[in-house]
Amino acid sequence: MSAIELAGLSIEGPRGPLVHGIDLSVEAGEAIGIVGESGSGKSLTLRSIIGLLPRGVRVSAGQVTTSGRLGMIFQDPLSALDPLTTVGKHVIEICRHVRGMSRAAARARAVELFTEVGLPDPEAKLRSYPHQLSGGQRQRVVLAVALAAEPEILLCDEPTTALDVTVQAQVLALIETLRRERGLTVVFVSHDLAVISQVCSTVAVMQAGRIVERGPTAEVVTEPRHPYTRSLIDAVLEVPRPDAPASDAAADLNAPRTEGDVR
Ligand SMILES: Nc1ncnc2c1ncn2[C@@H]1O[C@H](COP(=O)(O)OP(=O)(O)OP(=O)(O)O)[C@@H](O)[C@H]1O
């Protein structure tokens, strides 16, 4: 059974349809990226998986099925953390209240999790407040908070966009390590194909509320079939690609790697 199954998922807001009949199947342990420009429907699709759609926005058709505990991390770690609560307490509270641990066991687990996400001096870091940490360290804390609930599925909404490039690479490497070691299923939303290709073996490309292309990330990046995917890659690379003739773009719309063909 798949870890996540979206079947004919449509989402609408107060002013009409926003996401149109998405089919997506994610196997346990798989890392899939959802890429697309701002407003293409990535976040709403991701949020529908965990049932966290904004007020006034709802699933209007189709089904979301998940198998496994869900965790989610967001773009801005500062807004995900309470500024008046130590970062250690964030993790300890989840261990106590979600996992039912004693205070001492929860504290020990928090140190383990801070170590696992690569926070320096994890014991001392428990007592830090969010503003006392760097952006990268805060995102590591957010990951530790998500992991404290022992999720099997990790939903990531642009988790590295707010970080500078070097730190971004470190956090991406961490997510990839956690996925491998814990066998996590990962759904990773980003507007940046380069970022997705560091974590995800499969990618779905969204445009205007639809999946227009999907396939192995390496193939989609090197041989995009849909003109929209091509434009995303060109925007990232910002270099001419002499090997990519533009004229066959329309013909490629019916090529095998398009919506509905893969699974
Ligand atoms: N709370 C809301 N109420 C009404 N419309 C919304 C709401 N949230 C998002 N939308 C609309 O739904 C569409 C998809 O939004 P979504 O946030 O999923 O896009 P996205 O691809 O994740 O973009 P971004 O990368 O900017 O986050 C957009 O047209 C957006 O304006």
UniProtKB/TrEMBL annotation:
Keyword Translocase applies: yes
Superkingdom of the source species: Bacteria
UniProt KW keywords: ATP-binding, Cell inner membrane, Cell membrane, Membrane, Nucleotide-binding, Translocase, Transport
SUPFAM superfamilies the UniProt entry points to: P-loop containing nucleoside triphosphate hydrolases
InterPro entries with a match to the protein in the record: AAA+_ATPase, ABC_Ni/Peptide_Import, ABC_transporter-like_ATP-bd, ABC_transporter-like_CS, Oligopep_ABC_C, P-loop_NTPase
GO cellular component: plasma membrane
Gene Ontology biological process terms, A to Z: peptide transport
A GO term for molecular function: ATP hydrolysis activity
Protein name as annotated: Peptide/nickel transport system ATP-binding protein
Organism: Sanguibacter gelidistatuariae
